[in-house]
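To the team - fe (ii) ion complex, inputs and output below.
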Amino acid sequence: MAASIPADMGKKGMEIVKADLKGVIKDLNTAYSDEWLAHFQYWYMAKWIKGMDADTLRSVLEKQSADELGHAGKLAERIIQLGGRPVAHPAHLLRWCGCGFKEPPSKRTDLDRVIKDVLQAEACAIEFYSKMAEKYRGTDLVTHEIFEDLLKDEVSDEEEWEAFQDSP
Ligand SMILES: [Fe+2]
Ligand SMILES: [Fe+2]
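Output:
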């Protein structure tokens, strides 16, 4: 079935997509929404936090926030390639996301909460991306690979944050 918007991709590129297009675009939009929300959450927390160790966490938040935005970009490009439209209204990100959004702590020194919330977001992303990489392995190799790349990044993000959790 052709999508409503023409695909931004060549004939052969489209031909090798065996998965249901609407379904792939939907899954990609879920991931895209989660990435935008993670980007926002990490960016905000980097500005907000203060106290001992805040500077260490801040630099990691800034880096990962930029990485999540990069992930959103890769997902948007794939959605457009497949003839879909990335979620275009910020309010709709919350409707589309799969992992939800945790408002940053009201207390600026609550770094434990920050670590806990990031770890929760990363764990959710890891679970979703591992499911998605598996789901599209045989039906859409390009999408499969995007999910696999993102999965690798989130696995290393989680590792970085777990190290903070162990520190006194
Ligand atoms: Fe990400
Ligand atoms: Fe991440």
